[in-house]
Design a protein that fits this description.
Strand content: 15-25%
Number of helices: 12
CATH class of the largest domain: Alpha Beta
Largest sheet: 7 strands, parallel
Oligomer: single chain
Helix content: 25-40%
Strand order of the largest sheet: 10-11-9-8-14-15-16
């Protein structure tokens, strides 16, 4: 049976395009459409077979934000995906704070944008895994980019395993003792689906005198990361900024990779600065965590690296951290399955045996502070 999706957008053209893209998956169908939030709310209240909602932000009568607030206040839990224009960045992050599962940037040329189709396809997979009532998910989707069937981990795939997952302390059982408070440390974090909301549970808990700089790669298109950085800076004690070319790393500052660019670091004359690697997207990702971690291998200034892997689809970060483990002393923190929106990236790094701590999202900041210290 085809899984039913609701598309809400005041543009008839966008509703038609979304219907075509989703219908081509052979697993989902746009069974319901609405031109505004009022119409959408009526459908949501009347139908109980909707597996995902794709919704525009700016619409007449009732906006996407107003609709999201309403259904959340009514206790309706249907995966909600925002379809956002670049100019809607602030509202997009408000939607994520309210509980939207994901957002997808509207393309300029919707008929030929393969990346747009790919993101819709991935969002459907994630929504399906969240909705699955039997705990069994076909964790695959067909990539529009390559035509290949791609497999991803998700939070249902391993059942209740998160309760029994323990840190791999055999490889680094003395690492907490060996982390020297006098050595220079760097924190490098990667996240994807569910990341913006997860970061709001981590960054505001970090002190302004954290004894290390922090690099963050959140998979996000151009035009959105500056808004995210500003929002995190407003609600945090620690300083947060969108990374800029040439930024010299300083303790107590969080640098978020600019959307649509690869964040990397290099060392010159004893100082470490940020530069934008012009490598094409890696597996559709730009920024890509693997590039960030790989660039850290070449630093002499920082002797100890705290790697953090939060919620996200796929395995970004695993290759880079594995490479980094051959060059630096690491302490690897992974978010647990239970608190992850998608248990893909944290699971991938855990399965390498490099992970030292697997913990709930609420404990991530405490683990970082414990290993890095304060000035």
């Amino acid at each position: 049976m085809m899984k039913k999706v609701l598309v809400i957008d005041d543009s008839a053209l966008m509703r038609r395009v979304m219907s075509d893209i989703i219908g081509n998956t052979n697993e989902y169908i746009v069974a319901y459409t609405a031109a505004n939030g009022v119409e959408g709310l009526k459908i949501i209240e009347e139908k109980d077979d909707i597996v995902a909602i794709f919704c525009d932000i700016n619409m007449p009568k009732m906006s996407g934000l107003e609709l999201l607030k309403t259904i959340k206040s009514n206790g309706i839990e249907i995966p909600f995906i925002i379809i956002s224009a670049q100019g809607d960045a602030k509202d997009t992050f408000t939607a994520l704070e309210l509980g939207a599962m994901e957002f997808i940037k509207k393309p300029n040329r919707i008929f030929v944008d393969v990346e747009f189709r790919e993101k819709i396809n991935k969002a459907l997979f994630i929504a399906s895994s969240i909705n699955d009532k039997d705990g069994v998910v076909d964790a695959t989707y067909k990539s529009y980019r390559t035509g290949k069937v791609v497999k991803f981990y998700d939070k249902q795939e391993t059942g209740n395993k998160s309760q029994s997952i323990q840190p791999n302390n055999e490889r680094f059982k003395d690492v907490s003792k060996s982390f020297n408070v006098k050595t220079k440390k760097l924190v490098a974090l990667v996240c994807s689906t569910g990341g913006p909301k997860a970061l709001q549970s981590v960054i505001p808990k970090l002190p302004k005198n954290l004894a290390a700089p922090m690099l963050i790669v959140q998979h996000m298109p151009a035009g959105f990361t500056d808004t995210m950085a500003r929002r995190l800076d407003e609600i945090s004690e620690i300083s947060v900024k969108e990374a800029a070319q040439g930024d010299v790393l300083k303790n107590g500052v969080v640098y978020i990779a600019k959307g649509g660019t690869h964040l990397a670091v290099r060392e010159e004359h004893g100082k470490v600065s940020i530069y934008f690697d012009d490598t094409p997207p890696i597996g559709g990702l730009k920024p890509c965590g693997n590039i960030m971690y790989s660039s850290i291998c070449n630093l002499f200034c920082y002797e100890e690296i705290v790697c953090v892997v939060l919620t996200g689809m796929g395995a970004d970060g695993t290759k880079g951290i594995t490479e980094l483990s051959g060059h630096k002393k690491l302490y690897v923190i992974a978010q647990d399955e239970k608190s992850s929106t998608v248990y893909g990236m944290p699971k991938a790094i855990y399965e390498t045996g490099l992970t030292d701590v697997v913990c709930d999202l609420d404990e991530i900041a405490k683990e970082i502070i414990k290993k890095v210290g304060v000035l």
